[in-house]
Every structure is written in structure tokens, then in C-alpha cells.
Amino acid sequence: MERHVGYLHTMLHAMVEDIDRPVTSVDLLSQVERDIVIGKWNETQQDYPADLCIHHLFEQQVERTPQATVLVFNGQSLTYAELNERANRLAHHLIGLGVQPDSLVAICVERSFAMIVGVLAVLKAGGAYVPLDPSYPKERLAYILEDAAPTIVLVDGAGHVSFSEASQHLHVKDIASIVMVDPFDYLSSNVNPEVLGLTSRHLAYIIYTSGSTGRPKGVMVEHQGVVNYALSQIDEFGLDINNRVLQFTSLSFDVSVMEIFTAFYSGASLHLLEDRTRLDRQELWGYIERHMITHAVLPPVILQECKNCSPLSTQLTLISAGEELSATLARALQRLIPNGRVINEYGPTEITIIATSWECPRDFNDDVVPIGRPIPNKTTYILDKDQQPVPIGAVGELYIGGVGVARGYLNRPDLTAKVFLPDPFAGNDDARMYKTGDLARYLSDGNIIFLGRNDHQVKIRGFRIELGEIEARL
After folding, report:
1. pLDDT (0 to 100) of residue 156
2. β-strands 269-272, 244-247: how paired?
3. Neighbours of 333 (CB within 10 A)
């Protein structure tokens, strides 16, 4: 109440000083409050190896725990050393085909060991991977292929069929090679490749999201942001060699990056789910219980369908991400995971996976679930239409800065310029922030409440959908 009286006092004083001044031009924030919302709540600086690429940290973990289990799928497993050797052989083969820093390599592979080998191999070769889910509509795959124009496509049996069908829909140019990823019998070296000139500011992957004009947008993400995010999560949740991480998400969603590399950097094992287990909620919940999964990321639409499952006896850290988590569901999850933790995380693909995080307390009884506060080395700003900070509690648009802001949209400099903007609050001329289009407000403790969109974007079952894309199809 005292803060709002202060806003009123500021407003009245400004009106008396200049009776012709527009009310909307009055800055209600005192310097103290501005220092809080711009400064104090964004004091997230934390050391991390900013010069290392994604695969470098995996290779370090291989040195530490070569015989530990890294992958589990369909009753089979691989050790860290075995996975590294397979990825190295394919990486050297890709280098021989001309892959270099910022080369784009598409991966059209069903979930399997081969899918993970493909991701690591592309990164080790210095390239950036472009995921193509074989189950996606062929028209969408064709559009991504034409827009990204990868020089190489990695496929397995199912992926080769999907790629062949997709390439008939549009004229796909300049694909020099189609490489089978699953035989694992390349005669290349099995030592870690050293790619000259590769840095953490080169591209790691391009993931396509829905587009307002009917054209999906390829978000260009660099290594540095992934390294920062994964290490911050490992530190926050205490992951180590004793943990088991669920790999639920399609490679076409950046949550898959979260799942894969939080496991790989900590020495944990990554459990890839067969489709029949992913699609059956009782099977999914049963797998988590039987295999004592300790870390999982699932969207609320999936968690909603698990509400009637039996409570877990395991100590699961469950992260809800991808869409809004309701207070009712958050309380239900607390009952389902009596020995674990429920975390709500938020972040668009454009800022590298996640920007904010909030842990649901055991006594949670509020009506709305916060999306939390910025994770290490991220900054958040809630701004008005003039990109000025709004008062605590007022509604504004959420902007995100710090480590991990994407390079932009592939082949879309016009759209990139509209939403990837200079960050005027960072004190660094090179700093940028992302204009999310999400409405939000601050709570008095600095936690953020998500309030929806300021445009026509919606989320359906975790998918970002621009209504313009539907209109274009119609």
C-alpha cells in the first residue's frame, strides 16, 4: 500500500509541475525501486566456462567416468566411453564431408542411441544440428529443409523414408550427402576431433518454432548459452553419477537439450523412452517408478493426464515446462511426488531453453503459480511500450537478457531486428535482450507472474502455435 501511495504522489507532483504533460509520460518508479527491478533482482552473475563448447564438457565427463552408464534404451545401455567413440567416428566422417563451424546438418532419426550419437557427432565436427522429427508432417519437414538448406542429412531407416517423402513436396537444394547414422561402422578415428577455429559463439543447433506469417522460424542458438544453462541446473538440483534423467521430449523441442546435457555433464544416465511408453501415461509413470528416475521435465498437458497415477516412492525432481502450470495441478503434483520436488520453469527457445525458475513449496496454497526469478547469468525486465521499467505489480511485457540470447532467426533479418534488441540496462554495448511478447508482473519478492500473450500466439499441448500459421494453411 505504501508503495502505491508513493506512485500516486509521484503522479500528482508531475501533474502540478506541468499541467500539459501526458499522464503516460510520467515515470512512477523512484530511483530506489528502479535499482531493485533492474539491478538487485538481476544480480545473477555466476562463473561458468564461457569459452567451452557443448561437447567439450561431455568429453571431460567421459574422462572422469568412462565406464559409467550414459544411455539406456529398450533394455540396452551404453557407457560414456562407448558413446564417445561412436560419436567420434561419425564426427570424423562428417569432417571429411566438409562439415565445419556453423555448417548445418539435419538429423532425421527416430529416438534411439543413433539419435544421440548424431547430435554429439555434429557438435564434435563443429556443425550445428537441425532436428527433423520423422513423425512431423512432410510439408513442415520440407519447409525446414528448404529454409535451412543443410549440406548433410543424417538419417536412419524411418528418417530416410520421411526425408525422401518431404523432399518431394518442395525443391530442396544443395544437400550434398545423405548419411546413415545407425550402422556405427565408420572406419574413422575414435579420438576426440579438434576443430580449428571453433568457439562457444558458433552455432550449436537451429530449432524451428511457429511463425506469425505461416512460416516457421529457425532459432539460431550458440554453444555458450547451453553450457551456462546445463551447468546452472546441475548445480541447482545436485545432479551426479547417481542420477537417472528421463529423455521424454522430441529432439525438435529445446527441452531435449536440457534433458541430454544436464545428464551428460553430471555423469548421470539418460533414459530414452520408447514411443509406446511416452504415449501411455500409466506406462510413463510406471517407468519413472521402476527405474527410479530422479530428474524429469514434462509439460503440464502430460502431467495433467498423470494426476490419477499412484504416488511415487522415489525422490523425483519434476520440472514443469513448455506451458503454464496451474495452481491446482501444482498441488496435485505435490501429492504425487511426496518425496521429491516440483519446479516450474519458463523460457522461450530464443533465450536458450529456460530463463526463470521457481520451486513449489510444500505448503503452497496460492491461486497462481509464479514462473520465478532469473537463473544464473540471465536477466529479466518487465517493460512498458516505451521499454521503460514498470512499477512492481504493474503489467508489462517481459524482456530477457544475459547469456544465451539467440543469434536470431535464420534467413529472417527483418524479424530478428524486431525482437532481438540492444539491452539498455546491461551496461555493455554488445548486450542484447529478447522481446518475448509475454505479459507479466512482479510480485513484491521479485518472483514473476506470467499473464499470457500480447499477440495471437497460443500454446496447444506444449506446442507454440501462431494463428497466422493456421490462417496461411487455410
Report:
1. 85
2. parallel
3. 24
Question: Which three cell numbers mark 299?
Answer: 509439460
Whether 449 is in a domain gets the answer: no
Domain annotation covers residue 29: yes
The string of DSSP letters for 111-156 reads: SSHHHHHHHHHHHHTT-EEEE--TTS-HHHHHHHHHHH--SEEEE-
Query: What is the grid cell recorded at 26?
Result: 510520467
Q: Is residue 8 part of a domain?
A: yes
All three cell numbers of 227:
553450457
On whether the CB atoms of residues 140 and 165 are closer than 8 A, the answer is no
- Across the range 338-342, mean pLDDT stands at 97
Domain range for 28 is 1-34
Residue 153's pLDDT is what?
94
Other CB atoms within 10 A of residue 361 CB: 11
Q: Under a CB-based contact definition with an 8 Å cutoff, are residues 377 and 353 in contact?
A: no
Q: State the sign of the Cα–Cα–Cα–Cα dihedral 115, 119, 124, 128.
A: positive
Q: Tell me, yes or no, whether 13 lies in a domain.
A: yes
Residue that has been written with the C-alpha cell 556405427 in this structure: 184
CB of 319 within 8 A of CB of 303? no
Q: Give the number of other CB atoms < 10 A from CB of residue 443.
A: 14
Is residue 444 within 8 Å of residue 392, measured between CB atoms? yes
Looking at residue 177, what is its pLDDT? Answer: 78
Q: Where does 219-326 have alpha helices with state H?
A: 223-237, 255-264, 275-279, 281-290, 300-304
Helix (H) or strand (E) holding 89: helix 80-96
**Residue keyed to cell 502430460:** 302
Q: Which residues pair with 448 in a beta bridge?
A: 372, 442
Q: Would you say residue 7 has pLDDT above 90?
A: no
Q: How far apart are CA 405 and CA 400, in angstroms?
A: 8
- With cut-offs at 50, 70 and 90, classify the pLDDT of residue 21: low
Q: Contact 130/154 with Cβ under 8 angstroms?
A: no
Burial, 142: exposed, middle or buried (Cβ in 10 Å; 0-12, 13-18, 19+)? buried
| Residue 35 pLDDT | 94
Helix axes 223-237, 54-64, angle to 10 degrees: 40
Could you give the number of structural domains in the chain? Answer: 1
For residue 157, pLDDT over 60 is answered with yes
Cβ within 8 Å of residue 41, ≥6 positions away: 373, 374, 380, 442, 446
The C-alpha cell that represents 247 in the structure block: 529423455
